[in-house]
Design brief:
Layout: E1 29-34, E2 37-41, E3 47-52, E4 58-65, H1 79-86, H2 97-103, E5 107-112, E6 117-124, H3 127-142, H4 148-166, H5 169-181, H6 195-200, H7 203-213, E7 219-225, H8 229-240, E8 274-283, H9 289-302, H10 308-314, E9 321-327, E10 333-342, H11 347-359, H12 368-386, H13 389-401, H14 407-415, H15 420-430, E11 436-437, H16 458-461, H17 481-487, E12 489-492, E13 498-503, E14 510-518, H18 529-538, H19 548-557, E15 561-566, E16 570-578, H20 582-594, H21 600-617, H22 621-633, H23 647-656, H24 659-669, E17 676-681, H25 685-696, E18 719-723, E19 730-738, H26 747-758, H27 764-772, E20 779-785, E21 792-800, H28 805-822, H29 826-844, H30 847-859, H31 864-875, H32 879-889, E22 896-901, H33 903-906
Parallel strand pairs: 3-7, 13-17, 18-22
Antiparallel strand pairs: 1-2, 2-3, 4-6, 4-7, 5-6, 8-10, 8-11, 9-10, 12-13, 14-16, 14-17, 15-16, 19-21, 19-22, 20-21
Helix pairs in contact: 1-4, 3-8, 9-12, 9-15, 10-11, 12-19, 17-31, 18-24, 20-25, 21-23, 26-31, 26-32, 27-28, 28-32
Length: 910
C-alpha cells in the first residue's frame, strides 16, 4: 500500500466557527488552533489534531507516524512499507483487524511514503465505532504482534505488490530517475524497497524498527468529522494517554544530498509500446517558499491546452502527452517533467523540445495571465478539497510529513503573493543543465551548480502565524433512505427530462450536480459506438463561444470541478462547485452540451492521446485478461453496442475514425428528453428548477432512447492463458453470466453472499488467498444483477506472481466450492450484514456518491425506498437463504478463466 506523494497543489481558504474553550484533561496541552483545526499534545508526546464538522455523518481517524523509507538503513529498504502491512495482522486485543474493519463498515487503508506512514479508517459516526477505532489505533501502536509467521505470508504479498509496480513503465522510469538524481539520500530508493530486502528482512530487525518508531511521541493522531471535540479529546486521553513516553531518543536523519555537478542520464529498456521521458531537477523542501513558487510554475507548464508543454509538444504532435509536478518532501525534493511519445515519433525531437521548453523558461518570462490562470487552477482544487473534513483529515498526513500541518494554510497564504518575477527567479536557480537528471557525467571547466537551501526553520516560520478567518458551516444530515426520500424534490421538465433535487446545508456551501443524457436504442446505435465515444470526449474541448482553454479558465474562476464524458448510449456531466457559482457553472455546462464546436485540432490531439494510452496497455496482463473475459461473456458481433473491442480493434477504430462521424452522431442523437438532472447540496431549489427548465427543458431527442438490454445467455466455460513476456506481475480474471436481475427474489442473497465471499478485506477470498497463503496483493469478487432484466454477471479477480498461477486458481475454486457446499455460519452472516449496511450508510453520506445513486434510481423509475426495501430483505436473510440463492445461480462448471502473465520465464504451465 505504498503511496507516492505528489503535491501538485497549494492550499487555499478554509475556516471554521469558533467556540468557547473548555477545561482540558489533565496532562493535555493546547498547542495551537488554525481555521477550525486544533492541535493538542499529551504528556507522552502524542500530538492530536481535532477537526469537528457537523455536516458529515462520518468520522475519519488517521494516525500518521513520522517514519518512512527515508529512515531505513542498509538492508532495510521497504521495511517501513512492509511494517505497514504487518500492523494489520493483529494485537492480543484485536486479533482479526480486517474482520473488525469490515464489521464496522469502515473504509480503511494504510499508506507509506518517504517521510511518513499512516493508517486511517472512515466510518459511520457512532459512539461504538469511535471508541472501537481509537482503541484499535492505540493498541496497535505498541502491541502489534509483528510475528514471524505473519511475515512469512505477508512478505510474498508485498513482493507481489512490488512485482505489480514492475509492470508499469512509468513507475519504473520514475524510480530509476530518482535513483540517479539522489546519490546518497534515501529519497533515491523506492518506497516499496529492494526485492532482496523484502524477501530477506529478519523479523528481529522489523520488530526493532516497530518498537523504535511506533510510539506516541512519533505520531500525530487526526480525528475529523462529526465529533464532539471535548468528548473526543477525553477519549483520546483514555485510550492513548496510558501509553508511556518511550525512553529511547529518536535519531534525526542527517544525510544531505550534495550539490549536483553535471547532467545525468538513465536508460531503461523493457518491453513496451510507448516512449517515455522524465527530467528531474533538485528543488528545496516543501516548507521553503520556493516550493510554492515552483508549484505555480509547474501549473503554467502542464495546463491543457494553454500550458507551455502542451503547446510545444502535444499540439505539434511531437508527444502524445506532457506534464510537470513538484515532489514536495520534508527535505529537498525534485521537480519532474514528463512526456509520452508514440513509437512512430522521434524521441530525440521530443527530448530536445522538452529540454528547451524547460530550460528556456527564464528567457521567456510568464505573463501575468499565465500566472493568474495557474493560480486559479490551484485555488479551485484546494478550496473544493477543503470543503470535506474527511479529505482534509487524510491530506494533513502529507503536510505533517513535510514538518508541520499548518503548511497547508501557509502555502495558501503565500500563493497570492507569487509574481511572474518569482517564477523567473526559481527557473534561473533550479532549472539548469547542471541540476538536471537525465544524464551522464560531462566534464566542464566552470560547473554551473545549484545550491539548495537548507531545511527550513519551522519554529521561526510559525512564530507569529495566526491563520485565516471563517466560512459557512453545514447541517448534520441523516443519510437514511427514508430521510433522503423525504428531503428530495422530484419533477419532470417540459421535454421529459427527470429533475431530482436534494437541498441541504453543506460545509463551504458546496454543491454537486449531475446531468445525464440517455441516447439512442439498439438498432440506431449499431456501428456508432466509436463515433459516440469520440463525440462525448470532444464536448469539453471547445464550444461555438469558448475555446477549450477558456472553458478551463472559466471553471477555475468559478471554483468548479467539471467533467464530461460518455459513449454511444449516454453522456454524463459531473459538477462540483459552490452555491454562489452554481448558476454560472450550469450555464457553461449547458453550452458545452448544446453548442459543441468539435475542433479539428482537438480531435487529432484526442486521437493521438488515446492511441498512446491504449498502446501503452496492449501488453499489460490485467488489460489482456480483463478484455478477454469481457469479450467472452459478451459474445455480440462487431458493430453491436454491446460488443467488447479487443485492444487491436480499439487501435484500428481510432486510426480510421473521422471527425465528421462524431459530428453526425451528435446531430443524430443528442438531446435531454430521456435524461436526468440531479443536484445535491447547498442551492436554491426554485432558482435551480427554473434554470434547469430554461437550459434543458426545450432540448428534445432527435431519436427516442430505449434501454439496451443484455439478455441472459449461458456462456460455455473456457480456460485461456495469455503470454505477456517480461512482465513481473500476472493477472487472473474469471466469471460467468447468471440469470438474475436486481428485482429477483434471490438478489438480496446473492448480494450478501458475494460480500462474504469476495468483497473487502474480511472476505473469504481475501483471507485465504492474501492473508493465509500470501499469493496476491489484490483479490476479490463482484456480483452485478442488472435493472429491468433477469441478467447479471459474477466475476472474480486476482493479481499474483506468474509462478503462483496454479495455486491462485486452485484456492479461488476451492473457496467457491466450499461456500456452495457448506454455506455460511450464523456469525459470518450477522457480521456481514452489519458491515454491508454501515458501508452503504457511509456511501450515502458522500454527496457525489449519493448524487449518482439518485440519478440511477431516477432512470430506473425508483426511489430511495427501494434501497431501504433491499436493506430490509438483506437484514431478514438466514445463512440458509444466502447459500440457497447462490446455489441456484452459480455453477462452477460454467466459470470461464483468463490468465495473463510471463509463464515461460516462471517455468510453469497454467
Amino acid at each position: 500500500m505504498q503511496q507516492v506523494k505528489l503535491l501538485f497543489l497549494a492550499p487555499v481558504l478554509f475556516v471554521a466557527s469558533a467556540y468557547a474553550q473548555p477545561a482540558l484533561p489533565a496532562g493535555v496541552e493546547r498547542v495551537t488552533s488554525v481555521e477550525g483545526i486544533t492541535e493538542y499534545k499529551l504528556a507522552n508526546g502524542l500530538h492530536v489534531l481535532l477537526f469537528p464538522d457537523a455536516t458529515k455523518q462520518t468520522i475519519t481517524v488517521n494516525a500518521t507516524y513520522l517514519v518512512g523509507s527515508r529512515h531505513e538503513h542498509y538492508g532495510e529498504t521497504g521495511m517501513a512499507h512492509l511494517l505497514e502491512h504487518m500492523v494489520f495482522k493483529g494485537t492480543p486485543n484485536h486479533r482479526d483487524i480486517p474482520k473488525e474493519l469490515s464489521n464496522h463498515g469502515a473504509r480503511p487503508n494504510g499508506s507509506t511514503a518517504w517521510d511518513r506512514t499512516n493508517y486511517y479508517e472512515t466510518f459511520a459516526a457512532t459512539d461504538e465505532n469511535l471508541n472501537w477505532s481509537l482503541d484499535l489505533e492505540a493498541d496497535r501502536m505498541v502491541n502489534s504482534f509483528i510475528a514471524k509467521k505473519d511475515l512469512d505470508s505477508e512478505m510474498t504479498v508485498v513482493r507481489n505488490e512490488f512485482e505489480a509496480g514492475e509492470n508499469s513503465a512509468q513507475r519504473v522510469l520514475l524510480q530509476r530517475t530518482m535513483s540517479a538524481a539522489y546519490v546518497w539520500h534515501n529519497y533515491g530508493k523506492s518506497v516499496i524497497g529492494s526485492r532482496a530486502d523484502i524477501e530477506n528482512v529478519p523479523i528481529d530487525r522489523l520488530q526493532a524498527f516497530y518498537r523504535t518508531y511506533y510510539q506516541p511521541d512519533n505520531c500525530v493522531l487526526t480525528v475529523a468529522g462529526r465529533i464532539d471535540e471535548p468528548k473526543v479529546l477525553q477519549l483520546v486521553v483514555n485510550y492513548f494517554g496510558k501509553i508511556p513516553r518511550p525512553e529511547r531518543t529518536l535519531l534525526k536523519t542527517y544525510t544531505a544530498e550534495p550539490v549536483q555537478d553535471g547532467e545525468r542520464l538513465i536508460t531503461v529498456r523493457r518491453v513496451g509500446d510507448t516512449q517515455l521521458i522524465n527530467v528531474a531537477y533538485h528543488v528545496p523542501d516543501s516548507a521553503n517558499r520556493d516550493s510554492d513558487v515552483l508549484d505555480v510554475l509547474a501549473s503554467v507548464m502542464r495546463r491543457q491546452p494553454a500550458g507551455r508543454l502542451y503547446k510545444a509538444l502535444v499540439e505539434t504532435k511531437k508527444a502524445a502527452s506532457a506534464s510537470s509536478f513538484v515532489l514536495s518532501l520534508r527535505e529537498p525534493g525534485l521537480m519532474i517533467f514528463t512526456a509520452t511519445v508514440r513509437k512512430e515519433s522521434s524521441l530525440d525531437d521530443a527530448r530536445d523540445i522538452l529540454l528547451k521548453t524547460i530550460e528556456d523558461f527564464a528567457s521567456n518570462p510568464p505573463t501575468k495571465e499565465e500566472v493568474d490562470a495557474a493560480r486559479a487552477e490551484i485555488v479551485k482544487q484546494t478550496e473544493l478539497s477543503l470543503n470535506d473534513s474527511g479529505r482534509i483529515g487524510l491530506t494533513l498526513s502529507e503536510y505533517i510529513a513535510s514538518g508541520d500541518w499548518r503548511l497547508l494554510f501557509l502555502g495558501r497564504d503565500r500563493l497570492k503573493d507569487i509574481t511572474p518575477d518569482d517564477l523567473v527567479r526559481v527557473a534561473k536557480t533550479y532549472l539548469k543543465p547542471a541540476n538536471r537528471t537525465m544524464g551522464i557525467f560531462i566534464p566542464t571547466d566552470k560547473p554551473d551548480r545549484s545550491e539548495i537551501p537548507n531545511q527550513s526553520d519551522l519554529i521561526t516560520l510559525f512564530k507569529d502565524y495566526k491563520g485565516g478567518a471563517a466560512i459557512a458551516q453545514g447541517e448534520a444530515f441523516d443519510p437514511s433512505p427514508e430521510n433522503i426520500d423525504k428531503r428530495t424534490i422530484r419533477g419532470t421538465l417540459g421535454n421529459g427530462m427527470k429533475l431530482v433535487m436534494l437541498p441541504k446545508k453543506t460545509r463551504g456551501e458546496n454543491v454537486s450536480a449531475e446531468i445525464v443524457l440517455r441516447l439512442g436504442d439498439l438498432e440506431s446505435l449499431t456501428n456508432r459506438e466509436r463515433a459516440g465515444s469520440i463525440a462525448a470526449s470532444l464536448l469539453m474541448r471547445g464550444t461555438t463561444k469558448h475555446t477549450r482553454q477558456q472553458i478551463t479558465d472559466e471553471f477555475n474562476r468559478l471554483k468548479a470541478q467539471v467533467s464530461v464524458g460518455g459513449g454511444a448510449t449516454s453522456t454524463r456531466a459531473s459538477i462540483e462547485t459552490t452555491r454562489a457559482n452554481l448558476p454560472e457553472v450550469l450555464k457553461l455546462v449547458a453550452e458545452i452540451l448544446r453548442e459543441p464546436a468539435f475542433p479539428e485540432n482537438e480531435f487529432e490531439q484526442y486521437r493521438q492521446q488515446q492511441l498512446a494510452a491504449i498502446e501503452n496497455a496492449r501488453r499489460e496482463p490485467q488489460t489482456l485478461a480483463s478484455v478477454g473475459l469481457q469479450q467472452h461473456l459478451s459474445p455480440y458481433p462487431k458493430g453491436d453496442p454491446r460488443h467488447v473491442n479487443s485492444v487491436d480493434e480499439m487501435i484500428d477504430e481510432l486510426k480510421s475514425a473521422k471527425l465528421d462521424d462524431a459530428r453526425k452522431f451528435y446531430s443524430d442523437f443528442y438531446g435531454a428528453s430521456s435524461g436526468e438532472f440531479v443536484v445535491v447540496g447547498d442551492f436554491d431549489p426554485e432558482t435551480t428548477q427554473k434554470l434547469a427548465s430554461n437550459l434543458f427543458g426545450d432540448w428534445k431527442l432527435p431519436h427516442p432512447h430505449q434501454r439496451i438490454l443484455t439478455p441472459f445467455q449461458p456462456i460455455p466455460a473456457v480456460n485461456q492463458s495469455i503470454k505477456t513476456p517480461d512482465k513481473a506481475n500476472a493477472s487472473f480474471m474469471a466469471g460467468m453470466t447468471i440469470d438474475i436481475g436486481d428485482e429477483n427474489r434471490d438478489y438480496p442473497g446473492m448480494v450478501l453472499g458475494n460480500y462474504i465471499l469476495g468483497s473487502g478485506i474480511n472476505s473469504r477470498l481475501y483471507q485465504r488467498v492474501r492473508d493465509k497463503e500470501g499469493l496476491s496483493y489484490g483479490v476479490g469478487a463482484q456480483f452485478v444483477g442488472r435493472a429491468k432484466q433477469e441478467s447479471g454477471t459474477f466475476m472474480t479477480f486476482a493479481i499474483y506472481a506468474p509462478q503462483n498461477v496454479n495455486k491462485v486458481e486452485a484456492a479461488i475454486r476451492e473457496e467457491f466450492a466450499r461456500a456452495l457446499k457448506d454455506g455460511f455460519t450464523d456469525d459470518e452472516v450477522a457480521q456481514a450484514k452489519k458491515g454491508w449496511l454501515q458501508s452503504r450508510s457511509v456511501s450515502r453520506s458522500q454527496d457525489r456518491e449519493l448524487m449518482g445513486l439518485l440519478s440511477a434510481t431516477a432512470y430506473d423509475g425508483r426511489k430511495m425506498a427501494d434501497q431501504a426495501d433491499l436493506e430490509k430483505k438483506v437484514q431478514a436473510l438466514t445463512p440458509k437463504d444466502v447459500v440457497e440463492a447462490m446455489r441456484r445461480h452459480l455453477d462452477l462448471s460454467r466459470l470461464s478463466v483468463f490468465k495473463a502473465g510471463d509463464y515461460d520465464k516462471a517455468g510453469v504451465t497454467p
